[in-house]
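re: ur question from the group chat, yeah i did fold both. here u go
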Amino acid sequence: MGAARWSAIAFCLALIGAGKDDPIRHAEDNLVKEYELFLRYPDTTIRTSCSYFHDYPAADLTGAKILDALNDSVSDDGRVACYVRWQLMSGGPNQFPAELARQAVAMYRAAPALVARPQERELDPILQLSRREDEGAMNVRLENLIALADRNNLSNLNYRDELYDHLPDCAAKFICGLEDAAGRLDAGVPGEKFLAKVVNETSNWIDAGKADVAALTALDKAVGILRMHKAPQYPKAARWDGHVMRWVAMRPSLNHGRQLDKLAQLIQNTRDKGSG
C-alpha cells in the first residue's frame, strides 16, 4: 500500500478520533439523531428545555466556541439544525459577551424562516365546496394543518427564543427581537407573549439610561416602521352562517394595547431629556 494511501487513512482516523474528543461535535451527532427520531416517531420524548450540556457537562466551552458552532452545517433539515443549535447554547454563558454581539445578532437574523400557518386564500377552494354538515370536518382539517405548521416550527421557535435571551443587551438585540415578533405574527404563529417581553425589556433598558443617542435613533426608526405593520389574516375556524361556510379570521396586531405607541413615546421622551 502506497504512502499516500496510508496518509489518507491516517487523516480519516484522526478526524474520527477528533470527533470523539470534541464535545461540540459529539453533541451535534447525538442531537441530530434525537430530533430525526422525533420527526420519524412523533411520540418520542425530546428535550423541552436547553439542557444538553447540563446533562453532559464539557470543559473548555466558551461563548465564542458555542457561537462558532451555531454556524456548523449539521443537517439539511432546518428543523433538525435548529434543535441542535438550541441545545448547543446550554454549553455557553447565559449571555454572550459584548464583543460577540455583532456575530450573535447576525446569527439571530439568519434563523431559518418560519413555516406559515394556512391562509384563507389557500383554503378557500375547499371552503366553497363545503355544506352545513361539513363544519365539524372543516374545523378538524384546519386544526390539523395548524398543528402541522406548529410542529414544524417547534425547534425554530425554541432556537430563536434561546438565542434572543443569549444576546447581550444592545439596540440591535431589541430591534431584532421586535422584527422577529413581527415575523412570527406574519406567519400566523402566536407571538404576542414574545413581543410583550421584548417591548418590556427594551423599555427597562432605556429607563436604566443605557441607550445612547445612536441607539435611541435606531430604535425609533424600527419602532416607527413596525407600528405601521399589518400582519396577514389567518382563519381560526370555519362557521356556517346560514347560507355559506365562512372563515372566522384573526389578524394579530403588533401594537396590541398600544404597546409600540408607548415604547415610541418613551424613546421620544428620553431623547428630549438628553437634548434638553
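okk and heres the other one u asked abt
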Amino acid sequence: MNWDEIIKWSGWIVSIIGVLIAFYYGLKSQEQKKRLQTVDWSEIHAATAYLSRKIKIDGVPTVFLATDARGGILSRLIEERYQSDSPILIGFCRLSSDPLSKEDVVGFQKISTPKWTYFIPKKILDYKNSRILLVDDATFTGQSLVSIKNWLIENGCKQISTCTILASEISVKQEICADYFWSVTNQSEMTFPWGRVR
C-alpha cells in the first residue's frame, strides 16, 4: 500500500467517524431539547409537594377552582396533601377560534382571552367569602389567570390566589404570573403527562 492509498483511506475513516460523532451529538441534543420541553409525573409530584408547602404558609384553600381538567388534576394532588376534602370546581376551555367557544353553557361563566375561551362554573360564587385557589398547569401570557381572577373579584370574591406548575419568563417579568408556581420556563410549548400545553 502506497502513501496515496493510506491518505485516501485515512480520509474516509476520519469522514465516517465525523459523521458518527455528528449523529451522536445530534441525538443527544434532541434528547436534551425533549427533556426541557417535558414535565413527567415525578416532576408533577415534586411540584405539588413544593406548591402545597408554599400555599399552606398563607392558609389552606377552602375551595379549588381549576380552569380545566388539567388544573383539576393538580388541584386534586395539592388538596390530597392537606387531607381537607375541599371542593374542587372544574371549568373547561376551548380555543377562541373554535365556533363552539361562542356558545353559552348553562351554569358556566364564559371568559374570553385572545387565545382561549374559558367556561368557569358559576357555583364558585357560592364561595365568595372563602379562600379560593385558582389552578392551571401552566401560564405563558398570564391573560387567562388574570381574566378569571378579575371576574371573581368583580363578583365579590375576596381571597383569591393563583397557582401553576410552570410560569413563562414573560409572565414573571410582567408580574402577571401565578402567585404560586414551581418553575419558570422560556419554552412556548410544554408536554405534560396529560398532553401538550401551548
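fwiw on the second one: The first helix runs from residue 3 to 36. The mean pLDDT is 88. idk if thats what u expected
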